[in-house]
Amino acid sequence: MDWYEKAKRFEKNAENAFESGLYDISCFSCQQAVELYLKGKIIEKSGSKPYTHSLVELLRIIEKLGYEVPESVWRCAKELGEHYTQARYPDARIAEYDREEAERAIACMKEVLRYAAEVL
User: Fold this and answer.
1) Cβ count within 10 A of residue 115
2) CATH homologous superfamily, domain 3-119
3) What does DSSP assign to residue 94?
4) Sign of the dihedral defined by the CA atoms of residues 81, 83, 37, 108, in that order
């Protein structure tokens, strides 16, 4: 299984979890889909595998490879990055995840994946 296939599985999981009302799992899966897809692109373009879970750091690497990253993609990466920790640990946040937050995470996931597929 390659990086893109694994990313697609997390993308599907994000959508399925959303439909089931599992908003924390949906948000985490959005972050994972983007992380794996960006890592796949970086490996494809540079031959090296980044060892980070930070979507912002992955975008910095992409910039260093000579690609322009739009502000909307940066914003989405920052939002999705929060879910890596907050969605995994029950004591990492005060409020429960809700439908609106998961909808935003899915929209951000799609925006970053679209950018990566079209530009990189």
Assistant:
1) 21
2) Nucleotidyltransferases  domain 2 (1.20.120.330)
3) S
4) negative
* Tokens 């993609």, residue located: 73
> Tokens 């595998």 appear where?
49
What is the C-alpha separation between 114 and 108, in angstroms, rounded? Answer: 10
* Amino acid identity for residue 43 in this structure: I
DSSP 95: S
pLDDT bucket at 18, cuts 50 / 70 / 90? very high
**What predicted TM-score, i.e. pTM, was given to this entire model?**
0.95
Instruction: Check residue 47 and report its DSSP letter.
Output: S
Q: How far apart are the C-alpha atoms of 48 and 26, rounded to whole Å? A: 29
Helix ranges, the chain (H): 3-19, 23-46, 55-64, 71-86, 99-119
